[in-house]
């Protein structure tokens, strides 16, 4: 007996089964089979990233070197994440360490003063190459992380130095991190990173700079940490899932569009040049056969003589007809010739709108606003500008916390260990833990970079004042938003007040008004208290 065939119920498109149609469409063939040919493999991050890792970073490097928008994106990262001075705000965990708050504050002031002298020395003693200050190294690290997806810093020890501190650092290009002898990846060595079975990095293979290329390439293995816990090689990147060994640059999602936009701009520029090349043309009644003889047969002696003679006759004719009108020459053309003036054509032809659409897509992929990427702030109100800036600010603050601050804190810990050993700074005597026992607690700190962009300075200052007066914020937070340290501002205000008083200068009008307002309020409160009594 033949088994009856059970009919398959179909979805509204008449092709997809109803069971598949009722589930997630992204895993099916889509409406009308639109997704049937889209079958990407399910791979880990390393499997997707590392096979074309070198080529992808090389393309990002090329974009940053030769594309104005890509270069601007990197500059935005440096200016908004780091700024001109990356300031230390040391905050040891005094409760955990068992010391008093005042002792911790005194220790922090001592550490911050010594660190600033070491880190921002104009002689660049912090850098092995003697080219960078600490802030410059952080700016370079942020840029490196943007177009390479990661940053590397090697902590070194200057044995021949006569200076107080011998801790130094070397910025290492990600291009130099690779497997020795350019061998393939293995389970415990991937793209130059040696890892254990848990995926934690043990060390890095760093190749020597082989420029100009005739020297043999050599690799040096550098451990991640020294036996005492001191960082030897700093590697910072943001993994997107477990098992990731190297970082992915921010241009991967928009690299194709940026390259195509670059080509489109060049083509548009060439088109505009061609359209503007000829102001006028002269049409002649030269018959087709004669014209083709001139064009195709110019290699023969007879044709060259005919062509030369014809051009000579035209030149002689126009030279003998110098008709002018108000100083401008009016040519009298040969019989049969006509003068056609070429009007300038519209070179845009919808290009600007299309370019804006591409730039918005690219800006979304890079984490910045369209206005910042294109430097086009036209047709923006205060509200839209503030909303756009706030979106970018949130992105930059995340990168400051997880990229710039991580690099800075690890470098700071290396220096702080030496400063304590050399007794440049002294730990509070009542601490429960030594530096070796509680590195993170002693080195806990915040980093203050560039301030938030002020769109309307008056409104933003009023906002800060209202937040402080309402108890929703502090001077420390509001000053940090502006890229300042509130302790430095308070100390400077005290000095300026004393100097003005010593010089016989009156306080500023706002200070006098605030003092009088506070005095009146205090007097009224005293009167109210006396009445109540």
TrEMBL record:
InterPro entries, alphabetized: Phage_lambda_portal
GO biological process: virion assembly
GO terms assigned for molecular function: structural molecule activity
HAMAP family (alphabetical): PORTAL_LAMBDA
Protein name: Phage portal protein
Protein's organism: Shigella flexneri
């Amino acid at each position: 007996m033949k088994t009856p065939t059970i009919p398959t119920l179909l979805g509204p498109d008449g092709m997809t089964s109803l069971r598949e149609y009722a589930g997630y469409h992204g895993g099916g063939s889509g409406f009308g089979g639109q997704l049937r040919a889209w079958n990407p493999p399910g791979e880990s991050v390393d499997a997707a990233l590392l096979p074309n890792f070198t080529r992808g970073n090389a393309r990002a490097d090329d974009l940053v070197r030769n594309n104005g928008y890509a270069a601007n994106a990197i500059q935005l990262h440096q200016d908004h994440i780091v700024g001109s001075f990356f300031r230390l705000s040391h905050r040891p965990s005094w409760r955990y360490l068992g010391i008093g708050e005042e002792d911790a504050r005194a220790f922090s002031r001592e550490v911050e003063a010594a660190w600033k002298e070491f880190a921002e020395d104009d002689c660049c003693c912090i850098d092995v190459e003697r080219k960078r200050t600490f802030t410059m190294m952080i700016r370079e690290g942020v840029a490196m992380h943007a177009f390479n997806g990661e940053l590397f810093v090697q902590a070194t020890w200057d044995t021949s130095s006569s200076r107080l501190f011998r801790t130094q650092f070397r910025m290492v290009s990600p291009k130099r991190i690779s497997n020795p002898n350019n061998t393939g990846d293995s389970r415990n060595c991937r793209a130059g990173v040696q890892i254990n079975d848990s995926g934690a990095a043990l060390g890095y293979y760093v190749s020597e700079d082989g420029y100009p290329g005739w020297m043999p390439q050599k690799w040096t293995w550098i451990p991640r940490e020294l036996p005492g816990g001191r960082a030897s090689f700093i590697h910072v990147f943001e993994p997107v899932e477990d098992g990731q060994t190297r970082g992915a640059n921010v241009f991967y999602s928009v690299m194709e569009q940026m390259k195509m936009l670059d080509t489109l701009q060049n083509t548009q520029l060439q088109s505009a040049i061609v359209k503007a090349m000829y102001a006028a043309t002269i049409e002649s009644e030269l018959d087709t056969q004669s014209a083709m003889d001139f064009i195709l047969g110019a290699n023969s002696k007879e044709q060259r003589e005919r062509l030369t003679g014809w051009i000579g006759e035209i030149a002689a004719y126009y030279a003998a007809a110098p008709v002018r009108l108000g100083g401008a020459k009016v040519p009298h053309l040969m019989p049969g010739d006509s003068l056609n003036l070429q009007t300038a054509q519209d070179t845009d032809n919808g290009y600007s709108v299309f370019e804006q659409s591409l730039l918005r897509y690219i800006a979304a992929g890079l984490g910045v606003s369209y206005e910042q990427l294109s430097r086009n702030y036209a047709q923006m109100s205060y509200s839209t500008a503030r909303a756009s800036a706030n979106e970018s600010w949130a992105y930059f603050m995340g990168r400051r916390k997880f990229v710039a601050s991580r690099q800075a804190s690890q470098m700071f810990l290396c220096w702080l260990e030496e400063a304590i050993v050399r007794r440049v700074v002294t730990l509070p005597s009542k601490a429960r833990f030594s530096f070796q026992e509680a590195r993170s607690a002693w080195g806990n700190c915040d980093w203050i970079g560039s301030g938030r962009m002020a769109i309307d300075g008056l409104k933003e200052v009023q906002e800060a004042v209202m937040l402080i007066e309402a108890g929703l914020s502090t001077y420390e937070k509001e000053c940090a938003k502006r890229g300042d340290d509130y302790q430095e501002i308070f100390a400077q205000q005290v000095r300026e007040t004393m100097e003005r008083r010593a010089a016989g200068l009156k306080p500023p009008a706002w200070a006098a008004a605030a003092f009088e307002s506070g005095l009146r309020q205090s007097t009224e409160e005293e009167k109210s208290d006396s009445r109540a009594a």
